[in-house]
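Aim 2, interim progress: modelling of the magnesium ion-bound target.
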Amino acid sequence: MDSAPVQIELKTVAKTYGDHNVHALESVSLSIVRGEFIALTGASGCGKSTLLNIIGGIDRPTSGSIFFGGQDLAKLNDNDLTAVRATKLGFIFQFFNLLSTMTVEENIALPLELVGKSSASAVRKHVAEILERVKLSHRAKFYPSQLSGGEMQRTAIARALIHSPELILADEPTGNLDTENGTIILEMLQQINADDKLTIIMATHSLEAAAYARRNISLKDGLMISQIGA
Ligand SMILES: Nc1ncnc2c1ncn2[C@@H]1O[C@H](COP(=O)(O)OP(=O)(O)OP(=O)(O)O)[C@@H](O)[C@H]1O
Ligand SMILES: [Mg+2]
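Predicted structure of the complex, ligand included:
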């Protein structure tokens, strides 16, 4: 582990889903340093999405704590948790989760509109820069239904980056793409991690995808079973 400060610290995080008493996470303790690129791997049902959702404040742990920027997310009220998500986090999902009635540029601008601090011209300029970065300037006015899968995921990456988050969470970002487009997305994530020193945590079934990360963490039945890398 390098000497950069710890950005995220999980202490004995557990998650039980009440309805069926499923122990999705047993007890996960983990320190993450700013600028890491981590892959969470393991079989279906091992707890990857649950862990990502808890780190991202989408879900709350049953017990344990998650320190992010000095705050324990498990103790924040809903409004404060929403504010952390809106300002500090970017999410990328397997099924892209783009809004079908909005164009590519409108989808990408959404996180800035939600935070509401930028003027219309600043938003336009910022969207144009990000579109260039994900090589989608020629698709700005397209709707999601008019895009290929790879283009949809590049739109989602742009949307995740637009508000300069401190952490990107990606849940199976290549799960719905062919190998060629999957590779483009993984190389893009790797580049963003290297250029922006932006922390990325990615859940994936695929060991080929996990190889793009610098640290691999394997889960089994809600427990971390091994770690490889920095
Ligand atoms: N809302 C819920 N209610 C009950 N059980 C749940 C709920 N969400 C997840 N689980 C259970 O928790 C366990 C972990 O689920 P999770 O979605 O984290 O797995 P995963 O590793 O992401 O799997 P996959 O690779 O299939 O996406 C699974 O056994 C799942 O059935
Ligand atoms: Mg999952």
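Residues 89 and 214 are 20 Å apart (CA to CA). The mean pLDDT is 94.
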